[in-house]
Amino acid sequence: MDITKRRKFKNRIFHVLTFLCTLFGVIILSVLLFSILSKGIKWLSLNFLTNFPSRFPKKAGIYPALLGSLWLIFLTAIISFPIGIGTALYLEEYAKESKFTDFIKLNIANLAGVPAIIYGMLGLTIFVRLLGFGRSIISGALTMSLLILPTIIISSQEALKSVPDSLKQASYALGTTKWQTITGVVLPYALPGILTGTILSISRALGEAAPLIVVGALAYVSFIPKTPFDQFTVLPIQIFNWASMPKKEFQNVAAAGIIVLLIILLGINSIAIILRNKYQIRIKD
Amino acid sequence: MENIIKIENLNFYYGNFLALKNINMDIYKNKITAFIGPSGCGKSTLLRTLNRMNDFIENIKVEGNIYFKGQNIYSKEVDPVELRRRIGMVFQKPNPFPKTIYENIVYGLRKNGVNKKEILDEVVERTLKAVALYDEVKDKIYKSALELSGGQQQRLCIARAIAMQPEVVLMDEPTSALDPISTLKIEELLLELKKDYTIIIVTHSMQQAARISDWTAFFLNGELIEYDTTENIFENPRDKRTEDYITGRFG
Fold this sequence. Notes:
The complex is a heterodimer of chains A (285) and B (251). Chain A is mainly α. Chain A has helices at residues 2-40, 46-50, 63-94, 99-111, 116-130, 137-161, 165-173, 178-207, 210-215, 235-243, 249-279.
């Protein structure tokens, strides 16, 4: 009896402990959200979205940064999506097991852990200087693509691995080629997982500032970017810029910028969740 | 009797492991041939050499010849994709695609360039009738195949295989994941299908082999011990090991 009581007591302690761990994250997030919202919500307006940055907090807006961020994630997506999924398909479906493929896989995993600022240096050397793209959106997008490619590849690989072998065999047994099996069975099955991973990586790119500062995104922009070769700024840099201004009201402007960034991030993440739920296929075992 | 497949001096290796040892046998047209034997005896491996499904495994080696209607299927001119169109396969566990019943059946046809709706509709109806599934599912052929029961799914997989109009259908323990009633239905179906197709079935159930097959091959440790009409195998086995196996003394 005594042992049973002790076991139950231990069980309850760990129940409470794990709950407290969960609560920790929730509380931190709520405090953050509350402080941001209370500072910034009054500053949010249509003008804030369509104005250029200004010396006067009341007139300051995020229009160029917003457009810069949208350009950046759009280009990053169309660059990294095909390359990432292509790599994952090669590694999972085509490449034979060998030391070489193991080596590639290991390296991709390592690349995922390289600090973002290193990618910024790489982007500065290769895209800005060597290829001569200058301090443009395209340089930023290429750098961001390098940054998120390892994550996209790894999550796509996981999604491809989850495709049951029995389905692939069923497809091959009907006289289909490898490519037909990939388009007919493998990709439809893996796509929700691939999209989830990819979209989450892209939302990470949206929040990054460090590599873009190295690549040369501007801190103050008084024009809107029209082509991928224009100079630009992005939301996180603009927010950082405001937050470091001496005038106190700019803290509130920065908070308003953070709200905009958060809304876009949450929007993208909910697209990922919706896609996953909509196309998720459950296989009975 | 006309043979459709002829296996000659076949050796099969997984790496260094010799999984099939010098197999020689003929498979006869429009008959049901059963492969029996204890687990690991090589019967599934042999089945998968016939439509080259083993090609997907790395480090395998095939020696000897397998002729399908006179042509060596391991010669360089033979495209395994084309071969699998003509030699269909049904697997141990029902494996319908996560698509509608309709799309499951026409999958192979679509991938081979058949897209005319009238043809596809006709194939769906004909094959569902052939596997005695039509009455059960006719109102939901545009619903997901995953909603069907296990037995229905397996019959759908058979319909999917015969939609390609193969000449041979390979079955790898097709009823081992099913309940007795579903099993019975599939066995009845196979007796019906052998009019149009040659069927090779791997089974763990000796009763099943005895009930439905015309020819039975008994394998042990990668060797073909005895191959004869099902009647002879079960009533007058020539080899002591065959007798021991079918009487349940081992395996």
